[in-house]
Specification:
- The protein is of the alpha/beta class.
- It has 17 helices and 14 strands.
- Helix 15 links the parallel strand 13 and strand 14.
- The relative contact order is 0.14.
- The N terminus is likely disordered.
Length: about 400
C-alpha cells in the first residue's frame, strides 16, 4: 500500500467517527452523556476508554471505575485478607501487585473460584448500587469494557431504561458474561473484536442471541493507523539500525519475569537489540541495568510511554505472554509474536492465541532453553503483508452500534 493510500486510510479512520457522531441529516446533534467503565488493572481497559473519548469527541464521556467508585462496599474483606495492605476500593492495586510479583497461580485460583462465587453472591447488592448510581448520573448510554460486573450493571441499566453496551476485550469471556443467562434485559448488547469458535461456544452457553452481538474489530488507538517513519523513530529512541529489534513486554504494570527473559536472550549468538518495556515498574528497570550483556546484545529500557505504537512499528519481533491488548496491536502491525509460556500465565489470556492463529506469524515457547532458537527461527520467517483496509475499524464500527442503541438527537 503506497503512502498516499495509507494517508487516505488514516484520514477516513480518524474523521469518520467524528462526522457520524456530529451530523445527522445536516443538523448538529445534542451531546450525549456516556458513562464508560474502566479498570486500573491492566492496560487494555484504560486504552479502550481513551479510544472511546477520542471517538465520541462531541459527546460527554465520563470515565468511571466501578470497583472503586460504585461497588467498593462489596469488597470489605480485602483489607482483612491483605492485612491492611489494600483498602476495599483498591482491588485494582491488589491485582497489579499479584501480577508484578508473579503470583499468577494465586491469581488464577482467585479468579476461577473466589471471584466467581463472590460476584454471584453479591449480584443483587451490586445491582442496587448500580441502579442508585445510574439514577443519580442519568447517562444516555453505558459502555462497559470491563469484566465481572456486566450482569449486575446491565440489569440496573434496564431498570433505569438506559442502553447498556458491553465491549469485550478478551478472547475468553469466562467472567465477562458470568450470570448472563439470568439476564432479563432484552436490550443488552455486546461487541467482540473478532469471533472464534471458543467465543461462540461461550456466548451460546449464556443464551445470548445473535442479534445482541456485533463484531467491531479490535479496540486499537488511532496511533496504530497513522503512517510512521521508522528511521525517525529509531533516531528518536537511539535504536541501532543494524540489529533486529526485539520488543519485550509483560503488560502495563510490568513483571519481574522480564529479567529472566533478558538473561535468557543474552545467550544468543547473533546480534540483538532488546527493547524492554517496563511500564510503571521502576524497580525492574534498576534490576535490568545490573545485567551484564555481551557486546553484540544491547538493550533500551522503555518506561511507560504514550508512544507504544512507535516502538512496536520498528520491532522485528515481540516477546510477551498472550496479553490481549499488546498482542492485538502486534497482530494489526504484522509484528511476529513469540508467546512466552515458560511461566504460568493468566488462563483467560491464553485464548489470545486463537486470534493470532487467524493471520499472524507466531511461535509458542514453553521451556526457557527453547527461547533463543525459537526467536532465531521466528526472525527468519517472512513477514506477512497486512491489508489494513480489509480490517474492521473499531472507532468506525462502535459509532454505528452506539448510534443504533442511542440515536443522536438534533439540537432544538
Amino acid at each position: 500500500m503506497n503512502r498516499l493510500s495509507t494517508l487516505f486510510l488514516y484520514l477516513v479512520t480518524f474523521f469518520t467517527p467524528l462526522s457520524l457522531n456530529t451530523i445527522t441529516q445536516g443538523q448538529l446533534v445534542k451531546p450525549r452523556k456516556i458513562i464508560a467503565f474502566t479498570l486500573n488493572g491492566g492496560y487494555g481497559h484504560m486504552a479502550a476508554c481513551e479510544l472511546l473519548q477520542k471517538t465520541f469527541v462531541n459527546d460527554t464521556v465520563k470515565i468511571v471505575n466501578p470497583f472503586s467508585e460504585i461497588i467498593q462496599s462489596c469488597f470489605k474483606a480485602l483489607p482483612i485478607i491483605t492485612l491492611g495492605k489494600f483498602k476495599a476500593n483498591k482491588t485494582d492495586d491488589f491485582y497489579n501487585y499479584l501480577l508484578q510479583n508473579q503470583w499468577v497461580r494465586t491469581l488464577n485460583h482467585l479468579v476461577r473460584h473466589q471471584n466467581k462465587s463472590h460476584f454471584h453472591r453479591n449480584r443483587k447488592k451490586m445491582e442496587r448500587l448500580f441502579t442508585a448510581y445510574f439514577k443519580k448520573e442519568k447517562p444516555d448510554i453505558i459502555i462497559s469494557p470491563v469484566s465481572w460486573i456486566n450482569y449486575a450493571a446491565s440489569q440496573a441499566a434496564h431498570k433505569c431504561n438506559i442502553p447498556f453496551l458491553m465491549v469485550s476485550l478478551d478472547a475468553d469471556l469466562s467472567f465477562w458474561i458470568n450470570d448472563m443467562e439470568r439476564s432479563t434485559n432484552p436490550s443488552f448488547h455486546m461487541t467482540v473484536g473478532a469471533m472464534t469458535q471458543h467465543l461462540q461456544q461461550q456466548i451460546n452457553s449464556k443464551k445470548i442471541k445473535p442479534n445482541q452481538i456485533t463484531i467491531v474489530g479490535h479496540a486499537l488507538r488511532h496511533e496504530f493507523f497513522t503512517p510512521k517513519n521508522k528511521e525517525l523513530i529509531k533516531e528518536e529512541w537511539k535504536l541501532p539500525k543494524d540489529k533486529p529489534l526485539i520488543m519485550i513486554i509483560r503488560g502495563g504494570s510490568g513483571s519481574s519475569q522480564m529479567i529472566d527473559t533478558v538473561k535468557n536472550l543474552k545467550k544468543a549468538k547473533t546480534p540483538l537489540h532488546l527493547m524492554v518495556c517496563i511500564g510503571k515498574n521502576e524497580k525492574i528497570g534498576k534490576n535490568l541495568q545490573k545485567i551484564n550483556l555481551p557486546p553484540h546484545i544491547t538493550m533500551t529500557i522503555i518506561p511507560f510511554t504514550k508512544k507504544m505504537a512507535d516502538i512496536m512499528t520498528v520491532a522485528d519481533a515481540l516477546i510477551s505472554q498472550p496479553t490481549p491488548n499488546v498482542c492485538k496491536e502486534a497482530m494489526h502491525l504484522g509484528v511476529p509474536i513469540l508467546f512466552d509460556m515458560t511461566q504460568p500465565t493468566l488462563f483467560w489470556e491464553r485464548r489470545t492465541i486463537d486470534w493470532a492463529g487467524q493471520d499472524t506469524i507466531f511461535t509458542i515457547v514453553k521451556k526457557e532453553k527453547q527461547m533463543v532458537n525459537a526467536l532465531t527461527d521466528l526472525l527468519k520467517r517472512p513477514k506477512l503483508v497486512k491489508k489494513t483496509e480489509d480490517k474492521l475499524n473499531f472507532s468506525v464500527e462502535i459509532v454505528k452500534v452506539v448510534n443504533k442503541m442511542c440515536p443522536p438527537v438534533a439540537r432544538a
